[in-house]
Amino acid sequence: MERGGSVRDRPQQGTIFRTVVHAGRAATADEKNSLGPVSDRARPGMERGGSVRDRPQQGTIFRTVGLTIGLAVALAAALWTQAGLALWLAVLVLGYILALKDLRPTPVGRGQGQPFGAALFGWLGGLTLGALGLLPLLLRRGLGSGDWPTFADHLVYPHQLLLAGWGNGPSIPGPDDTLTFQLGLVACGLAVLGIVLGQRQALVTLSPFDKLTCACGPGAGRAGFCHPVVVLILAFLSTTLAAPLWKLAPFLARTLTYPWQLLLLAGPWLAWLAGLGGRALQSRYVPDTSAGRGPSTALPGLVRPGRGRTGATAGEKQPGLEALAGLLIGGRNRLKPLVRSRRGIFRTVPLFASLIALALLGSYGDLQPPTSAVPVADAPVAVFGNNEIILLSATPAGAPGPGGQITVLARWQALRPLAQDYTVFFHVATPDGAVWGQQDIMPQGGQLPTSQWRPGQVVADQYQVRLRPDAPVGADYRYLLGLYQWQTGQRLRAGTDDKVVVTP
Amino acid sequence: MTDERQTTNDERRTLWLPTEPATNDERSSVVGHWSLVLHHLVTLSPFDKLTCACGPGAGRAGSCHLVLILLFGLVVIAPLLRPGYFWGAHDARHDVYFIFEYDKSVQDGIWFPRWSPDFAFGYGYPFFIVYGPLATFVGELFHHFGGLGYEASVKAVLGLSILLSGLAMYGFARSWLGRPAGLVAAVAYMTIPYHLVDTYVRAALAESVALVFLPLALWGFRETVRRPRLTAILGAATAYAAIMWTSNLVAVVFTPGLMLYVGVLIFWKLRPLPLIAPALALALGFGLSAAFFVPALLEQKYINQAQWFGAYYNPLQHFVYFHQLFNPGWGFGISQPGPDDVAQGSLSYQLGAVPALLALIGLATAGRLDRGRRRELWFWGVWAGASIVLTLGISTLVWRHVPLIPYAQFPWRYLMLAILPLSILPGALVAGRKSQVAGRKSQVADHRSQVADDATQDTHHAIRDMRYAIRDTRCTPCQWPALILVALLLLGSYPYLKVEMRPPTSEQGPVSYAALMRFQRTSNEMTGVTAWVDPEQIPTWSPLADEWVAGRDVTTRVDYSRVPQNRALAVNAEGMSSAAEEVWYHADGPGQTITFNRFWYPGWNAYLLDGRHGRPVQRLVVERENGPLARVVVPVPAGEGYILLRFEDTPLRAAARWITFGTVGLIGLALAGRLVIPTILRKQITLPLPRAPGRRGRR
């Protein structure tokens, strides 16, 4: 149940961690923001008078302060939510801030150099705040101790990052997890597009958006590498390929319960790259002649000649996909261009909608959480399958031995409607694996197959086994109880095992 | 200015993009208009040529869209092309037996039957009085003329209904959002999950066919408001009548929304005059369908309705839970009370991730369109919201207190209304400019009326604008965005394009009288009875069923257990059809009666014939049996003779039929007038179109 709890907590953690990443980036890049698309558009107005010029400056200061506080609070919240994972996040954010440090925008006078310091200050503040909050806990419980073998058992096999399967079970050692570790086909596909197309564009000419989000600056060659590298490092560290590294620094394992938790941190960067992919698609297929370059290939219809009442003029920016990127990474400021340009949205709406639909479609089939309205017993013996059946109790009777008769009284409860008719197996075995008696039968002698169980219904059943005459005397007998599909013989998992061991 | 634009056009041609329109100078140049057209054909990609149909082949655009819709439709109906039949689908068994019964009547020469003789274990039921016969009629056409079996006929009707529904939605959406929007809306309508549920899970023949006519009715009524004309009125009337003939349930559920739509359109136009055309269309629609809906409405009290509205059919226990609207699960079972339908393998109530998302975006970005279409899109947003709310438990009070709402029987049936906006709104994402939407003829008409309304307007400029607008229509916006959306819509529903083909159980088929009886007994379906049958003693079997199950033909429905077959009363069956029976009788004296194994119902008449298969000479009284089955009882006069028992139209039904015939005649007259009068009218209305400036200059 503890494991299940950690899985359930992930969405909340994801929100907090995404906020931290966004705040860190926004705080650092704030000045660039004022120099990017916003300043580009504001420049004509700024030339008119000083008062117009001052207002953005004031806004920038307030914004910087706000984002610094936001970064600190978000980082502290992350630490208080799951300290270990948040430490990894803090390291990534620090690296990110340092990477952005190199980006030197065009001089604008006041405020230059402040964002980096503000971001660093926010980062330190968040770390300090988080540590202070955790101090009582640390004093009371210490740093804890990671169990290296257990941790290593849960390293993800590389192929699992790409497997399409979906499950709701716990993480189990080996390659046959019932929990999915996929990165997401659509997200990965768009991210690759973003890396390939976006990076090429960044190398040719950096748009303000690139400057803002890629953290490339004058070092354009490094532009699009930051995010893919972060994703790759996190994915790598979660896999079995990184086992030697973890072994070299086992203390790092103490920060996590499972190595695959690092995949959670890859989410924001992957989403950003996916957004970049969408933007790259737009830039590639919706010509932007403002920089004196046209599309190398154009899908006819995404742009119309600039005529008529609603036709966009040549050279107009197409911000729709920037908005998509903003939506994917939760950046509110990315929506501004969308609002500003009705013409832009008119022309890019179909592509915008298609990409969002594609992103949704990529995960839609998995949006079936196994819910149950049945109150689960406080201490069930085991939960079988995908939260399908719980074993409330198993009471054995009888003395094992040659020709002995063993009876077990089991109480099952269905958690949700069941589509399958499962068969119950009751084996009496010794530690060497030898089975000395067994019964495989559908519940209540086949009178009440599991497909007829109503959610919440408690089914009491009794299984009886007579041991073989040559069964050993006084052996360490074990009673194995479980369920399987009679068509395939596949057993339902019960936590990390596929059976329950009932002691005599 | 011209040079800049020319340069831009050159670049665009290089990039295979549509070029800007030529100026008058260009038109008058040596190259001229046709060289531009030729240029389009040369520079555009083959795909553009195929779909954009710029230039002289403009008419091909619409055709290509139709072809695309049919191609996508083929993917949607592909599961139906598999051999076999989905005997496990909810109404699949009913559908074949509906056609089976219809066919029995057709074999007797009755093309518009009202009585189904073999339902209720052979006692009969006025099925086609209370149930829209159009879908079954179309199936019978396939069976009778196409030589298809009963199962294949059902599949043919379902497949055809999907394709036609796509075309109908295309027409409606295209009329105000443009061709690309029509394409997207059409595919969305065909692939939206509830439509697939109707077809593949429920096999709801009547409802599926009715879905064809919903967009047509919307289209027709919209046109009656926007541009009242005879074709619009007749189209709206026919489409609405078709809904009535197909499914009275759909008609009842759909009509309030339709009326609201028309009302809103009239309100937005802020002119009382357009009310006449839609009102006329509605009246004609009622007239065309009077032969069905008047008896259906007035004779409902003659059937036992409690069978279809109680117990399992209590709508309050079939509300959709909100999460079910977005649950991607899929099942083939029947509706179950509670939130676990899909988990239990029952049918899905999902809206469809892609249509729902695209509809939301379409609604959110409606602001970029002109005012009229924006408001109309918002109306569809409200329509979607209202129809979805009616499927949820929060609408319990509405279901309890608002009349007509519970007529839908199951709350999730209101999804049939929700799928209309969920198809239209995604289309709005690729809506063209207003000038690109209207068809050539309507634009000409609009401009003509505009010119006629304002005599001071510069006619020359108006006509020039019109020509540009028509040119815009020819060069439809290119199709890639629409095709991407269509692909996504298809992809989103692709996992649900499946059907459970399986052989019938012995209780279901193969189609025969015996199987029909077994199916009725095991499923308690098609066992409706008349209002006079004792509800506590509704028959669960019959002597006729015994005969059929034993493999013997039933040659008479006379209850011989009530006939002593002696001098007092002797009866011999002379012939029987689906709605009639002839018997010879001999009775020593008065007071003798012949009881038929048919439920009594208004319309059963008996006649004394002048001989075997002779003509009626005397009308006999037909009584209702004073017993739990309320069968037909015919008191016979003393002596011997031939009696014909026949199911006929009551005066009410006959009057309703004549209303329909009269309406058809009226429409025929109007159409005939339309063919004669237009030449006169055209001379009065048509303004001479001046030549285009380019041509004038060239001349």
Question: What is the element layout, followed by pairings?
Answer:
The complex is a heterodimer of chains A (504) and B (699).
Chain A (H helix, E strand, L loop, with lengths): L1 H27 L1 H6 L1 H10 L3 H32 L1 H19 L12 H28 L6 H6 L31 H20 L3 H7 L11 H13 L4 H6 L1 H4 L8 H24 L34 H10 L5 H6 L1 H23 L17 E3 L4 E9 L7 E10 L7 E8 L5 E7 L16 E9 L11 E8 L14 E3 L2
Antiparallel strand pairs in A: 1-2, 2-3, 3-6, 4-5, 4-7, 7-8
Helix pairs in contact in A: 1-4, 1-5, 1-6, 1-13, 4-5, 4-6, 5-6, 8-13, 10-13, 13-14, 14-16
Chain B lengths: L1 H13 L9 H5 L3 H12 L2 H6 L7 H19 L14 H16 L19 H4 L3 H11 L5 H28 L1 H13 L1 H9 L3 H22 L3 H17 L1 H22 L6 H23 L7 H4 L43 H12 L6 H19 L6 H6 L13 H14 L5 H4 L2 H14 L5 H16 L5 H14 L19 H11 L19 H7 L19 E9 L2 E8 L4 E8 L4 E6 L6 E5 L2 E2 L6 E6 L2 E9 L3 H26 L1 H8 L7 H6 L1
Antiparallel strand pairs in B: 1-2, 2-8, 3-7, 4-5, 4-8, 6-7
Structure description:
The complex is a heterodimer of chains A (504) and B (699). Chain A has helices at residues 2-28, 30-35, 37-46, 50-81, 83-101, 114-141, 148-153, 185-204, 208-214, 226-238, 243-248, 250-253, 262-285, 320-329, 335-340, 342-364; strands at residues 382-384, 389-397, 405-414, 422-429, 435-441, 458-466, 478-485, 500-502. Chain A is an alpha+beta fold. A 4-stranded antiparallel beta sheet of chain A has the order 1-2-3-6, with no helix packed on it. Residues 1-11, 29-53, 104-113, 203-221 and 288-341 of chain A have low confidence and may be disordered. Chain B has 699 residues and is of the alpha+beta class. Helix content of chain B is 55%, strand content 8%. Chain B contains 29 helices and 8 strands. In chain B, α9 (150-177) packs antiparallel against α10 (179-191), α18 (371-389) runs antiparallel to α20 and α25 (513-523) packs across α26 (543-549). The longest helix of chain B is centred in the first third of the chain and has 28 residues, at 150-177. The interface between A and B is large, with 41 and 52 residues.
